Amino acid sequence: MNTAFLLSGKKAFFVIMKHPIYFLLPLLALFTMSASAQQTTDLKKTANGALYKIFTNNTGPKAKKDDVITFNFIQTTDKDSLLYSTYKTGKPVQAQIQASQNVGDLMDIFPLLAAKDSALVKVPTDSVFKGHEEARPPFFPKGSYLTFVIKIEKIQSLNEAIVEKNAEGQKRKDKELTEANSYLAANKINAISTGSGLRYVVTKPSVKRKPLSGDTVLVNYTGRILNGKVFDSSIAADAKSAGLDQPGREYKPISVILGQQQVIPGWDEALLLLNEGSKAKLIIPSSLAYGDRGAGQDIPPFSTLIFDVELVQVKPAKHAPAAKTGVINPAKKRVYRKPLTKKTN
Hints:
This protein is about 15% helix and about 30% strand. It is α+β, with helices and mostly antiparallel strands and about 350 residues long. The longest helix has 29 residues, at about 160-185.
């Protein structure tokens, strides 16, 4: 059974293909009762087989289909081994209410809750791993449960959630631009700007060929975020001085076919502007890099990236001949036909 770890901003979901489990649940200090100590006989049961107990009963509207809920959660095994906690990450997660597809998606539970409600949910692992026993980890033996404690922080209509997300995104973009401008001013970088938001400075010019879309280029690079932290490099000395841990990395120029989306959009655009043998500093906004998702622990969401690059070599691809422009060759004699005249008697 394949697994995938999907990131949406700092919202994390661990998905077991065909049987998704959303790792979503909160540490509720007001409940001292252990999840594993809760007897299953005290719990209600959903149509899909999940056991649950609602701890609170707030009077607000309950979540309904297409609503977006923001919630905290803690996830544990039957023996109270902590698997995940949004309280530890410091960020609640969001989910849109849809029809339940399986016992692990908790979509039978969310519509039972209003904002600020809390609940205990126990998902039978026998249902989760049915037909996929080879994927069952040893800490989930047969007959065990995947235990969640969830707290609904907010319920919004889809439109309300979109408006809020767009407003928050614009604030983050404005902040990113301000920080990038401050970086350029502080480092006295006079960069060329393109219409997309890319900014660059050629630090070592060259008169050799420029690549075309479809060409293969060899590039050396070192990438940083605005605070100077190096997150990647193809150059051994730069990686060593930055303390990068890249076991097995072969330090040499990387090969990229331009225009094939093999790299972030900022690279695809910038490398077409450089000549073979030239060096440049690229200032790439998040809109041309990793956007509101970021990339791992080293590149936060809405991060402007700084790359020092060297276009080591251009390997031209076979390109179709240029289309004729319709310009007449002045050396070629022009032939005019005499106009036809009407024959008269």
